[in-house]
Amino acid sequence: MTGTLSDAGSGVSLAYDAATGGYTIRDATGASTSFLPANREANTAPGRSDAVATVYAKSSGNRDDELILFNPGSGNTQLALTYVSYGAWQALTDNGATSTLATQYFVFGIRQSPTQPSTGSASYTTKPDGLWVTPNGVYSLSGTSSFTANFSAMTVSTQLNLTGTLATDSSTTRSLGTFNGTGTIAALGGGFTGSFTQSGTDAGGNTYSGGFTGAFFGPQGQEVGYSFRLTGTGGTAVGAVVGRGN
Question: Is 0.70 surpassed by the pTM of this model?
Fold first, then answer.
């Protein structure tokens, strides 16, 4: 199995159709897939739709597509959000002797109003999620994260502490490491970009570098979300971070 990963900075978009109740996701190449309510997975097995996320799945020929959306609202037992959420689009293609997994993470929601804060600072309670592809296998990412914004200086800072769990064996975990990120806020619109510096190495002694792209969400920027990408000698990791103001 090979992994091809893209983040929201690659131009992923999600559209909701009120008439059908379905979603259409599209990437920067123009490739798209639509998911209808009939494609929603019931909570009948681990990883399926529950209070935290809603999962859609469909198959066509030698390809299986899956759309995972983090649920907004007070019912989410991991992190209750109002204005921002994130998702992952995964496509598994069976090529016969080999298979290819493509995963794209993205954030979406109600963006901050054009008149963004110009003074003060804010911190956010955040949640990271992601996927890490290595020569030894594919790992789902979890861990801790932090995010602060300095609106007077128009800068942001964030930290990721990530651990991977092997997709084929949940008892096997591996540290990806700690990453410190700094970035700048755009003059208008509440968007921001930045880069990461790794502190130390991963569990195998490998180093990574990368960046993040995101925005503030809600009328006064009450929430935040960004996607990230990390590449190095030990593989590639992508994911998303979402959070609410403290």
Answer: yes
